[in-house]
Design a protein that fits this description.
alpha/beta; Rossmann fold; 8-stranded mixed sheet; 5-stranded parallel sheet; 23 helices; rod-shaped; GPCR_3; membrane; receptor; G-protein coupled receptor
Length: about 800
């Protein structure tokens, strides 16, 4: 299309590996044509026609274009630019460059193609626009001073990809990047973003497309890729660098992987994701607004509208069967008259504008805006200096291109300077497979870096087609999440995503997933069996309402009443021989002390408080000391009574004077001294036990100073052993009313109870510990009562004939006659 100013495009319209040295015309006619790439030419034509119709741009100046097919290969890529610059039969740098109205050059979409052509074009200062994906190798302005990249830089691609991983809870991925400047740039960006969001890299492959050694390397890590639990693979590269290797991997190595890819992949150039593929491609492409009128324009395109476009003619002949079967000649009248590019399947030719075509559209408007500004400036200069209008040269366009910014007709802002470019938004595409290898790109989501954090990614999961044979979302984690009640424990030598799940310890909880540490419940709380929640403990103690407490309280009251009844009986029969024997006063003291011994057990039952805690131990120590010292006094009295031989002996004086009775106050005073020391240093206090019973907090009395407690208990034990020893030595003394044997048995029971008490008490916990102490008090007191007073009660109630002084004297007289 001719115009006052021309834009030249070098587009790859044929597939790789064409042998142009073959002059066979039939061979050339059957050269594989890239139908999809023809949209580049249509986007160029559409934009130029739209600008030429715009009265506000380029007054009295029209744009035109010419398009050349660029060939692949290190040297073939220069063939078409040489012809364009010098003519088909001219020698470069020998004859002058032919006259050309071209003011800008379009190259792409591969960066390597633009780089090779750019080394030639920069010699002539032609503004070169590359419409392919942003290539970091082309951003060196010292090497490519006249080159401009229209595609936005992938500044947020790492964030976008990682946000998709987080959406599906994928934290175990593989990385597959090309060993070029783009791959070396994205790799640290990806790693940093992955580490920031606790996503681990299972394996990492940095591959170059050159050499068989890289294929061998991939085969060497077969087990790492194919058998790895990482079912997600991030691939960042382009067709030229990785496609051949990916075809190899597709059929040989990987199975059942989700591939997250960037927009530089031209999946339709090679049928990479074939029918029956077990892969799931999720592709991030640059979002762009819909260009109004483009699809309608494409539908109207036909060879009669553009008769000089032999590319369109070839596409038409190949697509609509315009050959005569009999003569094998191409005839226009054989083509359908109403044929349209809209008839072609979308996997062959898509009439909706692609990302590369949108960059071409923006390129044309960029050139037009720069020309418009240059013409305005030139008009001012002409008006002031009365100069003639001169056609603009390509080199004059650069100052106007450096910082150009404008809004295109679609409403998007176009910024050419790399530092001023906006971060791109991304559409997320999924490839749907159909029979016969047909494929359909479906938009399933979007990523916007301008949205609020947490709302940047929007996704329609129900539209994603996962691997064939499964409808569930793939799983890609090194270790399954630790649920509530468990904490993470790292595995030595492995990434943070690989861990073991260990249950929380006793009274610790983890109420979330993947918690690093368990949280300890407070003392008034306890962990439930699942160890995911702290529950409030129920307060408990040995209460009167508990069956155990009620039984012990009843026993204490009953024994105390029984002891009181025996005391009443002794008072009633105080003049009898049995009551008088062995000092009835001591018997009264012992019975009264036993009443208090039984009643002091009630202090251990019920909700403890400071007063009861102090009274428990002090009353226990003093009352039992009185009881045991009374038994000791009775034993000593028995011994002294039978040691009396003559009235003048000193022993008789001790017995008559009541000296044994002094044992009670003396022993009690010593015990009270111990108790006073106990209260003065570390008295008993109210305490809680949160560990003995699950789900309960036990209210109990802490003894304070254990040393003082064992001193009191030890002193009491010493008195008991002394009483037992004396009673045991006097057990065989004669006479009817001798109670030495009963005293011996009583102290034997007493000592046995408290010797058994010590190990049982220390092995018990909580309320049971208190119950053991109460039971020991009742048992030892009952032992004293039963062994000493039950035989006397038997004689008083059932054998009254034995309870007289006459019987006592008669037995004594008979014993003397025998001797």
């Amino acid at each position: 299309m001719d115009g006052d100013v021309m834009i030249t495009g070098f587009f790859p319209l044929y597939t790789l590996g064409i042998d142009h040295s073959n002059s066979d015309s039939t061979r050339q006619d059957h050269t594989p044509f890239i139908f999809k790439n023809y949209q580049f030419l249509l986007a160029l034509a559409f934009a130029i026609e739209e600008i030429n119709k715009n009265p506000d741009l380029l007054h009295n100046l029209t744009l035109g274009f010419d398009v050349y097919d660029v060939q692949f290969g290190a040297w073939r890529v220069f063939k078409t630019p040489f012809i364009w610059l010098f003519g088909k039969y001219k020698i470069p740098n020998y004859s002058c460059m032919r006259d050309s109205k071209s003011i800008a050059i379009l190259t792409g979409p591969l960066g390597i193609t633009s780089a090779r052509i750019g080394t030639l074009l920069q010699l002539y200062r032609f503004p070169q626009f590359t419409f392919g994906p942003f290539d970091h190798a082309l951003s060196d302005h010292h090497k490519f001073p006249a080159l401009y990249q229209m595609a936005p830089k992938d500044t947020s691609i790492a964030t976008a990809m990682v946000s998709l991983l987080l959406h599906f809870s994928w934290n175990w991925v593989g990385l597959f990047t090309s060993q070029d400047e783009n791959g070396l740039w994205i790799l640290p960006e990806l790693k940093e973003e992955l580490a920031k969001n606790s996503v681990c890299v299972a394996y990492e492959l940095l591959i170059s497309s050159k050499g068989i050694a890289h294929i061998i390397r991939i085969m060497a890590v077969y087990n790492e890729i194919n058998k790895s639990s990482a079912n997600v693979l991030i691939i960042y590269g382009d067709n030229e660098s990785l496609l051949d290797l990916m075809l190899f991997i597709e059929h040989i190595l990987m199975k059942g992987k989700v591939c997250i890819m960037n927009s530089q992949w031209n999946l339709k150039t090679r049928r990479y994701f074939m029918l029956g593929s077990l892969h799931v491609p999720l592709i991030f492409t640059h979002y762009h607004a819909d260009v109004s009128g483009f699809t309608d324009f494409v539908k109207t395109v036909n060879p009669s509208k553009y008769p000089e476009d032999f590319f369109l003619a070839k596409l038409w002949f190949l697509s609509f069967n315009c050959s005569d079967i009999e003569s094998d000649c191409i005839a226009w009248d054989k083509c359908p008259h109403d044929a349209s590019l809209d008839w072609l399947p979308r996997h062959i030719f898509d009439i909706s504008m692609s990302g590369d075509s949108y960059n071409i559209y923006n390129t044309v408007y960029t050139v037009a805006q720069a020309l418009h500004e240059m013409l305005l400036l030139q008009t001012e200069v002409q008006t002031m200096g009365n100069r003639k209008w001169t056609a603009p040269s390509p080199a004059q366009l650069h100052p106007f291109l450096k910082n150009i910014q404008f809004y295109n007709p679609a409403g998007d802002q176009v910024i050419l300077g790399e530092k001023s470019k906006l971060e791109p938004e991304y559409d997320i595409l999924n490839i749907w497979d159909f029979p016969e290898g047909l494929q359909f790109e479906v938009k399933v989501g979007k990523f916007s870096p301008y949205a609020l954090h947490g709302n940047q990614l929007s996704l329609s999961e129900d539209m994603i087609e996962w691997a064939i044979g499964t409808a569930e979302t793939p799983h890609s984690v090194c270790s399954e999440s630790c649920g509530p009640g468990f904490r993470k424990s790292s595995q030595e030598g492995k990434p943070a995503c690989c861990f073991d799940c260990n249950p929380c310890q006793q009274n610790e909880i983890a109420n979330g997933t993947d918690m690093e540490q368990c949280v300890k419940c407070t003392d008034h709380q306890y962990a439930n069996t699942q160890r995911n929640q702290c529950l409030l403990r129920d307060e408990t103690f040995l209460a009167f309402g508990d069956p155990l407490g009620m039984a012990l309280a009843c026993m204490g009251i009953c024994f105390s009443l029984l002891t009181a009844a025996i005391l009443g009986m002794f008072l009633k029969h105080q003049d009898t021989a049995i009551v008088k024997a062995n000092n009835r006063t001591l018997s009264y003291i012992l019975l009264i002390s036993l009443i208090f011994c039984f009643l002091c057990s009630l202090l251990f039952i019920g909700r403890p408080n400071t007063v009861t805690c102090i009274l428990q131990q002090i009353t226990f120590g003093v009352v039992f000391t009185v009881a045991v010292s009374t038994v000791l006094a009775k034993t000593v009295t028995v011994v002294l009574a039978f040691k009396v031989i003559s009235p003048g002996r000193r022993i008789r004086w001790l017995l008559v004077s009541g000296a044994p009775n002094l044992i009670i106050p003396l022993c009690t005073l010593i015990q009270m001294t111990f108790c006073g020391f106990w209260l003065g240093t570390s008295p008993p206090f109210v305490d809680t036990d949160a560990h003995s019973e699950h789900g309960h907090i036990i209210i109990l009395c802490n003894k304070g100073s254990l040393a003082a407690f064992y001193c009191v208990l030890g002193y009491l034990g010493s008195l008991a052993m002394a009483s037992f020893t004396v009673a045991f030595l006097a057990r065989n003394l004669p006479d009817t009313f001798n109670e030495a044997k009963f005293l011996t048995f009583s102290m034997l029971v007493f000592c046995s109870v408290w010797l058994t008490f010590l190990p049982v008490y220390h092995s018990a916990k909580g309320k049971i510990m208190v119950a053991v102490e109460v039971f020991s008090i009742l048992a030892s007191s009952a032992g004293l009562l039963g062994c000493i007073f039950v035989p006397k009660c038997y004689n008083i109630l059932l054998m009254p004939n034995k309870n007289s002084l006459h019987v006592f004297r008669y037995k004594r007289h008979n014993r003397r006659n025998k001797h």
